[in-house]
Automatic annotation (TrEMBL), chain A:
It comes from Actinomadura logoneensis. It catalyses: heme b + 2 H(+) = protoporphyrin IX + Fe(2+). Residues 94-252 form the Dyp-type peroxidase N-terminal domain. Its EC number is 1.11.1.-. This is Deferrochelatase.
From TrEMBL, chain B:
The keyword tRNA processing does not apply. This is Iron uptake system protein EfeO. The gene is efeO. Residues 33-114 form the EfeO-type cupredoxin-like domain. It comes from Actinomadura logoneensis. Residues 113-133 are annotated as: Disordered. Pfam families: Cupredoxin_1 (PF13473), Peptidase_M75 (PF09375).
Amino acid sequence: MIGGGRTNDGGSPAAGGESVARGAAAGAGGQRTDRPGAGGTPSGRMSRRRMLGFGGASLLVGAAAGAGIDRAVAAADEGDATTSSAVPFHGPHQAGIATPVQDRLHFAAFDVVTGDRAKLVRMLKEWTAAAAAMTAGRPVGAGAVGGPEVSPPDDTGEALGLPPSRLTLTIGFGPTLFEKDGKDRFGIRDRRPAALVDLPHFPGDNLDPNRSGGDIAVQACADDPQVAVHAIRNLARIGFGVVAVRWSQLGFGKTSSTTPDAQTPRNMFGFKDGTRNVAGTETSALDQHIWAAGRDGADWMAGGSYLVARRIRMHIETWDRASLGEQQDVIGRDKNEGAPIGRRREHDPVDLPRLKPTAHVRLAHPDSNGGTRILRRGYSFTDGSDGLGRLDAGLFFIAFQRDPRTGFIRIQNNLATDAMNEYIQHVGSGIYACPPGVREGGHWGETLFG
Amino acid sequence: MRSSSLLALAGVSALSASLLAACGGDDGDGGKGGDAVKVTASDSACEVAKTELPAGKITFKVLNKGSQANEFEILRPDGKIIAERENIGPGTTVNFVVNLSAGDYKALCSAGQTGKGPSRDIKVTGSGGAAGTADPRLTDAASEYKTFVLAQVDDTIAKAQKFADAVKAGDVAKAKELYAPSRMGWETIEPVAEKFGDIDPKIDAREADLKPAEKADWSGWHLLEKALWKDGSVKGKEQYADRLMADLKNLKGQMATLAIDPVNDMAHGAKELLDEVATGKVTGEEEAFSHTDLWDFKGNVDGAKKVYDLLRPVVRQKDAQLAQDLDENFAAVEKLLAKYRKGDGYVSYDTVPAAERKSLGDAVNALGEPLSKLAGAVAK
């Protein structure tokens, strides 16, 4: 039908859409976590823009004077953060790495479909502007409503009325951006960091090429899934003609935190995960294990980090038939408290010899891997079922590290004898160099292409 | 209103002013606020609160009290449509702005959106309203596009006739050969043809899209497609060949009243053609039995390209970056499509592997996105 449905029939999408959108978002997964200190925030009743005036829950009462402030006030550490505030986009490191882990994920890998470097850089600039706006709770471009009726709106609109939800957008560049099929596509082959290796085949891998690789990856994390999905959708839209989505993954529950004082989340095996993860406040550990340095070989990566993503399918049904004793032996911790075998409390040091030689925690422990540490930021996923009546569920593993060769690759090789391998299979994979943070006025990829 | 200049496309026999309507979605935007003329449409009536109106931008506030979707039209006394607003749902009100110069008009409400229904005479007096301020480049583009559309209809009729003859002769092999070519002209102008709402479903409905009650009345190309490729026989289907030709000739007859608006019909139409490719052709749904989707693909892209070529001088002036993006992406799609040429036509779509379909889909998205900005650029 020509002309149908293009005329605005009145009504206010901004006001009317708010409660509907929030209701749908909260209802879709039913997994929203009420974090300590975040509960009861009346964010749902406030417009997205108004929320930006507030830094945290403690300021919410009677702080109407701040409502006109456009830029978000940072709430970088979880103690002050609400599930609706904004995380600063600009800074020395990209947000979404040491940032307290949000509840939801939408991760997307893109292929670059043009050979034109200038076009790619132009799109990265457009992405940066959009990312800065969306993470601050603002719509993309001229917004979702109020523009010319003959044109599609710049923003797709499903985040109207939602708070920033601590959205972070983190970009990474895959090996194929630097060289593909022997071709130096964008004149950056010689800038490929030595640490950005092609991941080797690990025992047990069953990787689907359609869920692996990609020239560019964007990790969108937010406390509201609708905000995360909105961000990826709008970046994909801006990118048409320059990039095309290769694969993407939704995650509904964080499986690691970077905030050890908060309750440790559980993964789909029902076990606490990430107890000994690198915390966002461990500055020296971050510098030593997570942030790349100029002297590592690629100066454009100084302050950046390397992201390894693995889609790890869990054989949920057989796992659920395993006895509690076996489950605890496989992991190396007790299921209730999360204490290492032979200890009482979750955060007690792990006594490695007390664990079975094939226990996951023992094999993955820094002491079994030359002291190396990685920052895990994975999410549980359940993509319906697989046609055989089994849940297509598992862990979308994400880890950041200073050098994957001494980080993920070393640990993953050590996991070859992991008893857990009987219950998991790696089916997707990606490795990406995440550049440092963007300065005000800068853009994603500036240090690489500049 | 910036779009008012588009209204005076005097060179075109009649002009759809629905662009203006689209710009006047809310009270107060060009409609002078509370002066809206109330129209109450129902399944059997069309009440217009005021029938003597001053020339200029007039807002009609149309309430559909009926049970069916309604369409509101402003026509000249001879029946030519000046402006129309489709899809007014039961119980909803829309504000519809039309720029009218002095003269006699009819306001028509069409329950069920058939283009027919009760009407009221309207008299517009005064000196305001659409005047000769049109961009002549758009006037010419609309005029040329109408010529193109009519030529495509003629071409379709000529090729469909050969196809129909083969069906009636029971020559399955020949009919299969002529099937896809007979559709290409239609595919280039589909959004315009869809303006004549009752014809499209008769000639181009897919079986999977029919409601149970509609199955008995199914007709058109895809019925014959199924017979040819699935049944391998068109015995007893001769009447559908005749019906296809009758419907196409009916379309040609209706085309005489065709009014072309450069924004709504051309630019939006081009975008809709790419939507067709993205949702129906890339997936292989359009030609479920014959797998001749790439022919339709080519037709859709050619139709969109024709529109763009005609509007390109205007786009280049108003949004040079958009023109460059469209130039590049049309070329990219055409180049990709050319890989699948075979003889006078295209390879069967079921031979195109999934990875290549994704490349086609990526190219279509790359073109469709800037194409969705064409209307806004032209209306600037």
